[in-house]
Amino acid sequence: MRVLPILDLKRSCGALKGEILEAVSRVLESQSFILGQEVHAFEERVESYLEGAAAVGCASGTDALILALMALGVGPGDEVVTTPYSFFATVSCIVRLGATPVFADIDPKTYNIDLKDAAARFGSKTRALLPVHLFGQMTPLEEIVGLCREKGVSVVEDAAQAFGSWRRDGERIVRAGGMGTLGCYSFFPTKNLGACGDAGMVVTKDARLAERLKKLRVHGAGTTYLHEEVGLNSRLDAIQAAILNVKFRWLERWNEERRVLADRYRMFFGSKGLGEFVTLPEELEGNFHIYHQYAVRVARRDALATWLEERGLSTRVYYPLPLHLQKCFAFLGYGEGDFPESERLARESLALPMFVGLLPEEQERLVDAIAEFYR
Ligand SMILES: *Cc1c(COP(=O)(O)O)cnc(C)c1O
Predict the structure, then answer these.
(1) Terminal C-alpha separation, the chain
(2) Same-fold call for 9-248 versus 251-374
(3) How confident is the model over 228-240, as a mean pLDDT?
(4) In sequence order, what are the beta bridge partners of 103?
(5) Which ligand 1 atom lies nearest to the CA of residue 199?
(6) pLDDT tens digits for range 347-357
(7) Mutate to test the pocket of ligand 1, among 106, 186, 187 (most ligand atoms within 8 A of CB)
(8) Domain locations in the chain as residue ranges
(9) pTM score of the predicted model
(10) What is the CATH number of domain 251-374?
């Protein structure tokens, strides 16, 4: 049986192997393993990409979120408004710092936080809004940044799935991570810009916050062995930075290809008349969605996924249980029915293979099999 994997990095990165090994070897030769030239070069690349933001590399996307909230001084007694429909780290970082996550439901079209619902949950303890650009599509934050400013609420973007995604705001182009007070990226290997291990980054246009982030990632030390506050040990590894420097040059081409693949799914599904069973992802007006995931909504999701798996066609469920229903967050007091759109998406969402190098015949085979299931 031919197997269609959910992700095959060799198809995009196989050709870069020589260059990647050379970059790694350069780090070994330099003996500069912590911060240093490669990390600096990668930070500079991202800084020029984001036009004026400071970039601070760290150990993972999860740490990026923790560092961002720490830089804002978020802690016990503070509330952070966020989405229950995301990867675990979006919310664990808030809880880890002793602050309280306050959930708002999602917009069923984009799967991102519903900004009206979010605004309705702002209160006197709200310190930050933490929206996620889920699956590579930006949340239209221009609708809420004014209110946030007025209320003294900082915006921390979880852009872990959206590096290179952008949105048109009037005459401006705004990039994911560059719209809020702080933006957080992950370079986990499966992300659209992935390292060969864990890696992450925080970006901000606020120079004071950038300075604080640079201290926080080295144990809160201003000068070596002189600690001004209690930080983390969370640096972007030099070997990972060297690899990211190689891969970064492909980012735009790879993101363009993801959009071509998304169009092709649309075309294949379009001819099948499956509207009753399958709902395709929608791109919000003005958005350059990079389809980090191509997640469709389907009827009888689990039966379909099993049926496809038996035919060598891999799919994944992101995410089967919304965060407000996770056991470890039970103490927050939320229950079933509190966020109906998130709960419905958790029952219906199915991510199809979406990676650079995915072939048209593979996409067609998958769509044919889905059509056959519903027949
Ligand atoms: C991957 C991811 C993270 C965490 O990134 P790591 O690098 O794995 O720690 C956070 N938020 C979202 C939405 C993610 O997809």
Answers:
(1) 22
(2) no
(3) 96
(4) 82
(5) 7
(6) 999 999 999 99
(7) 186
(8) 9-248, 251-374
(9) 0.98
(10) 3.90.1150.10
Rounded Cα–Cα distance for residues 350 and 235 (Å): 34
238 pLDDT above the threshold of 90: yes
Q: Which residues of 86-125 are buried (b: 16+ CB within 10 A; e: fewer)?
A: bbebbbbbbeebebbbbbbbbbbebbbbbbebbbeebeee
Residues whose CB is less than 8 angstroms from the CB of residue 145 and which lie 6 or more positions away in sequence, other chains included:
155, 179, 180
Which own/partner contact pairs does 1-4 have at CB distance under 8 Å and 24+ positions apart?
Answer: 1/311, 1/312, 2/312, 3/312, 3/314, 4/312, 4/313, 4/314, 4/353, 4/362, 4/365, 4/366
Centroid of ligand 1 to alpha carbon of 318 (angstroms)? 12
215: its two tokens: 């201290």
Q: State whether CATH 3.40.640.10 applies to domain 9-248.
A: yes
Pick from 284, 286, 291: nearest CA to 260: 291
* pLDDT tens, residue by residue, 96-118: 999 999 999 999 999 999 999 99
Q: Check whether the bond before 85 is cis (ω within 30° of 0).
A: no
Tens-place pLDDT, residues 314-362: 999 999 999 999 999 999 999 999 999 999 999 999 999 999 999 999 9
**pLDDT at position 324:** 98
Q: Which pair of tokens denotes residue 179?
A: 């719209």
For residue 228, pLDDT over 90 is answered with no
81 Cα: distance to centroid of ligand 1 (angstroms):
18
Q: What is the mean pLDDT of residues 171-184?
A: 96
In this prediction, residues 131-149 reach a mean pLDDT of: 98
**Residue carrying the six token digits 């075309």:** 267
How far apart are alpha carbons 71 and 69 in whole angstroms? 5
Is 90 exceeded by the pLDDT of residue 225? no
Residue type present at position 162 = A
CA of 152 to the centre of ligand 1 (A): 26
